[in-house]
Design goal:
1 helix; 5-stranded mixed β-sheet; 3-stranded antiparallel β-sheet; RNA Polymerase Alpha Subunit, Chain A, domain 2; elongated; mainly beta; 8 strands
Length: 107
């Protein structure tokens, strides 16, 4: 007879700020709301060791012109075995506008 030890699975709720990826020079972005509530499921020992930087909520604005968009973010989870169960809200109203300040040239 074999006995298997399986870690207890559970869920946790983490709140993360929205990050923007692919923002063109000379533009700035803002979203409403500015944070997402992310419910994760995974083995209890892994979730207990979860670090703040292990979970990111990213809105891709690559190639978008100034304007207002409804965007669905990508949730990036670094620890293996942890999965996204739910994220609220599911979409973010995102506004891109020209920056009133010139973007300094890259070094």
């Amino acid at each position: 007879m074999q006995i298997a030890v399986v870690p207890i699975e559970t869920t946790i709720n983490v709140v993360r700020p929205v990050e923007f990826e692919g923002l063109a020079p000379g533009l700035f972005a803002r979203s409403s709301p500015i944070t997402a509530s992310v419910i994760l499921k995974g083995p209890l020992p892994v979730l207990d060791k979860l670090q703040y930087e292990d979970v990111r909520v990213v809105l891709s604005v690559d190639g978008l012109a100034p304007g207002t968009y409804q965007l669905t973010p990508q949730v990036i989870i670094l620890p293996p075995g942890v999965v996204l169960q739910t994220m609220l809200p599911e979409t973010f109203e995102t506004t891109l506008a020209r920056s009133p300040f010139p973007t300094p040239p890259a070094p």
